[in-house]
Amino acid sequence: MQVVRSWLRALVSVDSGDPEYDRRARTLNAIVAVTIPMAVIGALVVLPYPNGPQSAAVLIAALVPLAAVIWLSSHDRSDAAVALFAVALWLVVVGQPVLTGDLSTNMMLVPLGAVMLIYVIPRHRLRWLVAWSATALVVLQVGTNDADTVLQPRFVWNLNAALATVVTIAVLAFAASQLAESVRKEKTLTHELTARDAMVRRLEETANTDPLTGLLNRRSLDHSFSRVPPRSAVALLDLDRFKTVNDRYSHAAGDRLLVEFATVMADAARPDDLLFRLGGDEFLVIREHAGADELGAWLHGLRAQVRRRGFDVPKDVTVTFSGGVVAVGDLALEVALDRVDRAMYAAKEAGRDSIVVID
Predict the structure, then answer these.
(1) What CA–CA distance (Å, rounded) separates 246 from 252?
(2) Top-ranked range on mean pLDDT: pick from 26-40, 114-128, 145-159, 318-332
(3) Which of 81, 184, 279, 281 supports an S-S bond with 242, CB 3.0-4.6 Å?
(4) Res. 105: pLDDT tops 70
């Protein structure tokens, strides 16, 4: 019994990573696992009656393709297994009438077979069911007649009906559970993918963001500059005498100043401005679809805000910055940075707390 349970668990433990494929393969295996003993029981039941040996022979012969179906399914050949199962089922449905002319309960097997097949046939091949059902019904109509149909005892008809009912309920229940499991797996996979995407975005943000100020970093500048349109401007800002703050009042005081200055920049910037901290006390601003004069005017306004701002620094520290502005044009990143760096140093040499614009 333990061997049988292990074998049945193996049949329904298909896990290819494709929920729809797994659902069809597991349902097919479950149908075959139920159909095999039902075929044996059915053969034993009909054997004593007229035409019973022929009917039993059809059911027993069906065990061979059913075993082949399980073999194909266990070797990841689900489509071939479904096709073979459909053929074997069709032969069982029409085989006994062809041999004996006895309709018996085979007419009931057509809708039952269609129910089983609809859960295992790929969606794009569901039209096969029309041909399968139509040909089976035609053969049953042509291959049987009232004179040859055996009037079996009531309990035999009830038993056949009970077996068909059990198989139908088992197929529907198992297929429904597999559909629910597929939906659950898809939801789990969607949740995992969403979580992974969120993690990737967080990692990308961390990799492209300065951890102290929250502005973009130099790595982000390397990736972003190639997408800057030609009619844009770039500004480089450098805090005046920042090294004195670090040396005299500690790096913690310097970090507080950098954070406050970055906040002032961000509040004054346009929503589409790109703000970077390149390192130390150097900041870069890229304004798209703007000239150097426009960005230079913005820097003069920022300088006025910095003067009015009360920074968390010792009273003897005056916060100012020097800035250079250049038009990007068709300049490469290295060339643009070199030009704006020279403009910024020209502002330093002019006495600090000034702006130099190169159009």
Answers:
(1) 8
(2) 318-332
(3) 281
(4) no
- CB proximity list for 303: less than 8 A, separation 6 or greater: 320, 321, 323, 353, 355
The mean per-residue pLDDT over the stretch 44-49 comes to 80
* Burial environment of residue 253 by CB neighbours within 10 A (0 to 12, 13 to 18, 19 or more): middle
Q: Give the residue carrying structure tokens 């139509």.
A: 134
The topology under which CATH files domain 218-358 is Alpha-Beta Plaits (3.30.70)
Name the pLDDT band for 326 (thresholds 50, 70, 90).
Answer: very high
Residues 6+ away with beta carbon under 8 Å from 57: 99
This prediction has a pTM of: 0.48
- Alpha-carbon separation of residue 354 from 33, 199, 268, 316 (angstroms): 86, 43, 18, 20
Where exactly are the structural domains of the chain? Answer: 2-190, 218-358
The pLDDT confidence band at residue 317, using thresholds 50, 70 and 90, is: confident
Question: What is the edge-to-edge ordering of all strands in the sheet holding 232-239?
Answer: 274-279, 282-288, 232-239, 321-327, 355-358
Please provide the size of the chain in residues.
359
Query: Rounded CA gap, 272 and 19, in Å?
Result: 43
The answer to whether 119 touches 175, Cβ cutoff 8 Å, is yes
Nearest to 28 by CA among 62, 93, 76, 91: 76
How far is the C-alpha of 309 from the C-alpha of 206, rounded, in Å?
29
Q: How far is it, in rounded angstroms, from Cα 355 to Cα 337?
A: 16
Higher per-residue pLDDT: 353 or 207: 353
The answer to whether residues 322 and 237 touch, using CB atoms and an 8 Å cutoff, is yes
Is the pLDDT at 197 greater than 80, yes or no?
A: no
